[in-house]
Amino acid sequence: MQPRRRCAIGIEGVRKRFGDGDQAVEALAGVTLEIADNAFFTLLGPSGCGKTTLLRLIAGFEQADAGRILLFGEDIGGLPPNRRPVNTVFQHYALFPHMTVAENVAFGLERLGRPRAEIEATVRRMLELVKLGPLAGRRPAQLSGGQQQRVALARALAPHPRVLLLDEPLSALDLKLRREMRVELKQLQEETGITFLFVTHDQEEALTMSDRIAVMSEGRVQQVGSPQEIYDRPRNRFVAEFIGQGNFLPVTIERIEGGTALCRTGFGARLVAPASRELAAGTRAILAIRPERLRLTAPGEAGAALCGRIERLVYVGSDTDCRVRLEGGPVVEVRLRNAGDGVPPAGPGAPVGIAFDPAAARLLPEEG
Amino acid sequence: MSTGGTLLPPGLQRLLLLPALLTILLFLVVPLGFVLVYSFLTPGTYGGVVWRFSTDAYLQFLFERDLFDDSLTFNPAYLQIYARSFLQAAVATVSCLVVGLPTAYFIATRPPARRQAWLLLVTVPYWVNLLIRTVSMLFLIRDEGPINAALLALGVVDRPLRIAYTDFAIGLGLFYSYLPFMVLPLYAAIERFDFRLVDAAYDLYADRWTILRKVILPVVRPGIVAGCLLVFIPSIGAFIAPDLLGGGRNLMIGNLIALQFQSSRNWPFGSAAAIILLTIVLLALLLFARQQRRLGEARG
User: Fold this and answer.
1) pLDDT digits (tens, 9 = 90+) for B165-185
2) d(CA A165, CA A168)
3) Mutual angle of helices B267-299 and B253-261, in 10-degree steps
4) Would you call B297 exposed, middle or buried from its count of C-beta atoms within 10 A (0-12, 13-18, 19+)?
5) Within B109-163, where are the H helices?
6) Domains plus CATH for chain B?
7) Per residue in B253-291, pLDDT tens?
8) pLDDT grade for A1, boundaries at 50, 70 and 90
9) Listed residue (B84, B71, B5, B51) closest to B254, CA to CA
10) Which one of A76, B129, B153, B168 has the largest count of C-beta atoms within 10 Å of its C-beta?
11) CB neighbours of B274 closer than 8 A, spacing ≥ 6?
12) Where does residue A272 fall: left (phi above 0), alpha (psi -120 to 50 degrees), or beta otherwise?
């Protein structure tokens, strides 16, 4: 067992409702989470899942209806935002337009009453950290979106918060810049050693930067785990669907032998997948498998679990997405790597077989 | 950047301004020219002017000419009127700011649909003529008015409180007349204010007072300055409020000018007084414009 790191943020049974009566919306329906110190932790979910509410509760802009919020073991629930040693990078940066870049970065340090010399040194160090040294005298309106983003980062990091909260900070940037910033954010987290709590609806962002991810939907945490765990072993259909793409085949579990479940689909195919503890023989389940884990084979070839006909091929650069209509059944997506040297797959209408490693499949409980 | 180019070809776009320009030329520039010329002429015995150059009007502003030996002695009476006007206008401006800022903040932070209704209420006084409003105010505050009647009946005072015909009454009149001029530009500035900045400042350890002082006020500053100018400039030259509420005893610049054209029949001096007021206002505007430009340069 790996050594337990200190817990930076503890969320214990937190609930939050907005509005009252019939219009009340339950933003958080009992959330419990532990966020380790010196980690890059991501809250991932679609809009309205409660992730931003949770962030605002930690920052102190909202008060929880129930539950506790602990910062390094200390209950901070009653403190206003200006008394919590956490800082936020806002979605639209919220830079002070009447101040220079340096003044923006110095703002928090000045409020904390740090000595002048220390403030100047810290501001210089922060601006170097985000590579904005030469722009210290500019106003936010004179900066590009990416530069403003860095000022917001420097401003929030300058007081050396115990936890940095980031509220979809990359959503306003264009794709190329977003990719660059992902790497930089991760580096910044490692260099500063500050715990980053990052909120996003972008699964790619979450997968590329995070040490751990909490997937949220409808005010609840659906699954917490490393990016690999979340991607390879989603706990339910929501997680599997929200992150990456997937094929979901309704099956009935016929038998369980050792760690392997033998399943039958509605259209008569027999498939093998690792057994799941919650799903006993005889129950109905969903067999989930990622498109890139499927292989096309010659029709009828030994080892092909499924067979069907190619319906459509979509070229997406690095890969080709291949839709295959299964015999007597649904359509599955197969993602083929375009290595450049391989034989292009047969055209639409061609019969093919589909094979996969059973370990790559995943049995999920049937919804509802 | 070129805009509005689709309605008219560029060469004809200036025509859009023509009616307004002609109006200003005819009714502002030409009469102002007369006033400027008159201020350097000699007063006629029964009003009007005699076409003889003289700087007496400006000398009279500062000095009194001895009837016998033509010697000049310094006379601060008119300067005092200007100083009083300046002070009255300054007090009115500050009062309007103190009352207008919370009002504008309140309106600007209502849900958008409600803001229009509140703004309409702010403009209600303009549905009634200023003269009528000022006279009504006089009825309220005079010795026999309802305010004094109520105070007497309640036994708060045993003699009517002297409110009408005082500097306080003038100040009250100016404050009341020009308050909407303060509220509207302040509202416009606060309405545009990005309240996420408050969250950001709060998050960065600022308390409420610091947020107001360091973030909100500096960002809405142009609105504050605009409101102050819109109250100060008409206040310093006001005529109706000091004439009616001050009873013509505590003169302000407006009354002084009116007096010269009416009973005193000294048109050149009245013109000079008006030119001096205009100069003060222009200087104030120039200072403001320079400061705005400096800020603008700093802000890019």
Assistant:
1) 999 999 999 999 999 999 999
2) 10
3) 150
4) exposed
5) 112-123, 130-141, 146-154
6) 12-299 (1.10.3720.10)
7) 999 999 999 888 899 999 999 999 999 889 988 988 887
8) very low
9) B84
10) A76
11) B35, B39, B257
12) beta
* Angstrom distance (rounded) from CA A181 to CA A308: 43
Contact between chains at B204 and A94 (C-beta distance less than 8 A): no
Give the pLDDT confidence score for residue B190 in this predicted structure: 95
Rounded distance between C-alpha atoms, residue B257 and residue B63, angstroms: 17
3-state secondary structure of A235: coil
Interface test with chain B among A98, A153, A167, by most B beta carbons within 10 Å: A98
| Cα distance between residue B56 and residue B39, in whole Å | 9
Chain B residues close to A155, C-beta within 8 Å: 204
ipTM of the complex: 0.84
Instruction: Kindly report the pTM of this predicted structure.
Output: 0.81
Q: Return the SS3 of A289.
A: strand
Are residues B299 and A141, on separate chains, in Cβ contact within 8 Å? yes
Provide the β-strand partners of residue B50. B42
Q: Nearest-CA residue of chain A relative to B298? A: A139
Angstroms from A291 CA to nearest CA on chain B:
42
- Do A159 and B199 count as a contact with CB atoms less than 8 A apart? no
Angle between helices A145-157 and A101-111 (to 10 degrees): 20
The residues on B that touch A, with CB distances below 8 Å, are 194, 196-197, 199-207, 210, 214-215, 218-219, 221, 298-300
What is the model's pLDDT at position A136?
92
Say if CB A296 and CB A309 are below 8 A apart: no
Here the tokens at position A154 are 């420097």
Please list every residue in chain B whose beta carbon sits closer than 8 Å to the beta carbon of residue A82: 202-207
**Tens of pLDDT along B216-264?**
999 999 899 999 999 999 999 999 999 999 887 778 999 999 999 988 8
Q: How far is B219 from chain A (nearest CA, A)?
A: 6
What is the least distance, in Å, from the CA of A173 to any CA of chain B?
Answer: 19
* Residue tagged 């009476």 (tokens): B77
Length of chain B equals 300
Partnered with residue B198 across adjacent β-strands are none
